[in-house]
């Protein structure tokens, strides 16, 4: 097992009263720590999806550590915001971020994908605090999130629902049914974030089943759309804090990312969808991450 300094996860949720620039600095620190720990987890397990973990790490960090109204000490607080990680195969980055946020002891990350571990390859809402939906089969997370948002309306709750989907995942028809339902019900407290790294298992998304013009398609379904740099902590935080994009409409955010970011030999390489780094690659990646 490649050692990672014990203090890399000592970040915690970020106080919203801090100046914006300080929150952005802490988010960059946390995302770097999460990536370092995720590398160690995947290498030790011999399983994982490091490319998609790294493309979504900044989005998950900003949401979980600086935006969502949640309490790690009360993970079932009724009016908490909901976050659905629809691309459940990127469980490593979700678990590492939940540990940073304080939902469970970071030492548990050593059991990632071990036999009978609660931290399985796809997140289980019954076993892991902070996981709101058991995901993995692609195309299921967004319909669940729409249901959660409808439930909030019926209960008269102001809680928000966020859902992170992979771009290749949008080739599943259930997502478009969910998008139609969300717009029809004017779920303005529902936000979908697309991890738009352009790659899926084996090929580019546009070679497999063309998604573009994605923004126009989402608008045609009745969603308010914004595009943002998915590795820009300041831009992500500013956008999330200004939601909804347009009153009366759910928000559809296309976050432009890179598979394997920011490690040079992983970035934009399709094989890193599920390739396991060697010891030499781990050391090189850790050196690049700093």
What does this structure look like?
- The structure is a single chain.
- The protein has 290 residues and is an alpha/beta fold.
- The chain has one domain (20-289): Rossmann fold, CATH 3.40.50.
- The protein is built from nine helices and seven strands, in the order H-H-E-H-H-E-H-E-E-E-H-H-E-H-E-H.
- The protein has a five-stranded parallel sheet with strand order 1-2-3-7-6, sandwiched between helices. Strands 4-5 form a two-stranded antiparallel ribbon.
- Helix 4 (141-155) runs parallel beside helix 5 (173-184).
- Mean pLDDT is 94; it is low at 1-8.
Mean pLDDT: 94
What Rg is obtained from the alpha carbons, in whole angstroms?
Answer: 18 Å
- Spatial order of the strands in the main sheet? 1-2-3-7-6
Label the structural class: alpha/beta
How many angstroms separate the termini? 19 Å
Tell me the number of helical segments per DSSP (H or I, 4 or more residues long).
9
Overall shape: globular
Q: How many beta-strand segments?
A: 7
In this structure, how is the largest beta sheet organized?
Answer: 5 strands, parallel
Low-confidence stretches: 1-8
SSE blueprint and pairings:
Blueprint: H1 20-45, H2 50-67, E1 82-85, H3 91-101, H4 141-155, E2 161-166, H5 173-184, E3 190-196, E4 199-200, E5 203-204, H6 205-208, H7 214-220, E6 224-229, H8 233-241, E7 251-256, H9 279-289
Parallel strand pairs: 1-2, 2-3, 3-7, 6-7
Antiparallel strand pairs: 4-5
Helix pairs in contact: 1-2, 1-3, 1-9, 2-3, 2-8, 4-5
């Amino acid at each position: 097992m490649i050692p990672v300094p014990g203090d890399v996860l000592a970040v915690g949720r970020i106080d919203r009263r801090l100046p914006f620039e300080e929150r952005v600095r802490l988010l960059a620190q946390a995302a770097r720590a999460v990536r370092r720990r995720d590398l160690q987890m995947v290498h030790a397990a011999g399983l994982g999806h490091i490319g998609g973990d790294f493309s979504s790490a900044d989005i998950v960090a900003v949401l979980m550590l600086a935006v969502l109204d949640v309490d790690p000490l009360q993970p079932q607080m009724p009016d908490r915001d909901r976050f659905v990680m629809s691309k459940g195969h990127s469980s490593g980055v979700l678990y590492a971020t939940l540990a940073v946020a304080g939902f469970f002891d970071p030492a548990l990350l050593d059991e990632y994908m071990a036999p009978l571990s609660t931290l399985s390859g796809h997140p289980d809402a019954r076993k892991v605090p902070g996981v709101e939906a058991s995901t993995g089969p692609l195309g299921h997370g967004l319909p669940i999130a729409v249901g959660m948002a409808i439930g909030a309306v019926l209960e008269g709750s102001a809680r928000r629902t966020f859902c992170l989907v992979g771009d290749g995942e949008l080739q599943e028809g259930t997502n478009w049914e969910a998008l139609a339902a969300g717009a029809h019900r004017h779920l303005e407290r529902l936000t979908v974030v697309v991890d738009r790294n352009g790659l899926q298992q084996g090929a580019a998304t546009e070679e497999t089943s063309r998604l573009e013009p994605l923004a126009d398609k989402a608008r045609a379904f009745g969603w308010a759309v914004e595009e943002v740099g998915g590795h820009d902590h300041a831009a992500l935080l500013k956008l999330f804090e200004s939601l909804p994009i347009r009153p009366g409409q759910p928000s559809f955010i296309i976050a432009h990312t890179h598979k394997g970011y920011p490690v040079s030999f992983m970035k934009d390489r399709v094989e890193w969808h599920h390739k396991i780094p060697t010891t030499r690659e781990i050391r090189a990646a850790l050196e690049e991450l700093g």
